[in-house]
Amino acid sequence: MGEIVRLVLLKLVDENLLFNGEASEKLKTRGTFETRFVSQIESDSGDRKQIYNILTAFELLPSGTDCDIVRMVCESVSTRAAQMCSAGLAGVINRMRESRSQETLKITVGVDGSVYKLHPSFKDRFHATVRQLTPGCDITFIQSEEGSGRGAALISAVACKMACMMGQ
């Protein structure tokens, strides 16, 4: 997500809509705008200090309006990312419901990943969009506490199913 945000910011600079049309060399460098910055910017309390500090670390001198625009870019990119992830999962869940010929599918999904865990609103956007795209499904999300992506999500899902079967 960070690289997409960086590219959008550069486009806005090129159109003279951000940072008075001046981009720093650091902002121009591929891979420098990390995804964690997106999370930190969206976590800003509203006083713009967090946003300002990140942008000045990029050797930029942002105005209040620049900070607001950067926040909007981050929110747009992270919302799109959550929706793209949701669409893939929703497609799988809907296919499962259809293949089982069930009117309502009750399912538990194990989820892992640093963006899911650390971004201030990715998880909520992801859940809401999956539920919106899967009518007829009762979905429970559980966050894996172990690393290793798919394996951790699978183990979490199996553990949840076993606990439900044992009446816990």
Write the layout of secondary structure elements.
Blueprint: H1 2-14, H2 25-28, H3 35-42, H4 49-57, H5 64-99, E1 105-111, H6 114-118, H7 122-133, E2 137-143, H8 149-165
Parallel strand pairs: 1-2
Helix pairs in contact: 1-5, 3-5, 5-7
Distance from first to last alpha carbon: 38 Å
Contiguous low-pLDDT stretches (5 residues minimum) are none
The number of E-state strands comes to 2
Q: For the residues shown, what is the average pLDDT?
A: 91
* Rounded Rg: 20 Å
Give the ordered list of helices and strands: HHHHHEHHEH
Strands of the widest sheet, in order across it, are 1-2
User: What's the oligomerization state?
Assistant: single chain
Give a description of the structure:
There is one protein chain. The protein has 168 residues and is mainly alpha-helical. Strands 1-2 form a two-stranded parallel sheet. α1 packs across α5, α3 crosses α5 and α5 packs parallel to α7. The protein is elongated, with a radius of gyration of 20 Å. 24% of the residues are buried. The model has no long low-confidence stretch (mean pLDDT 91).
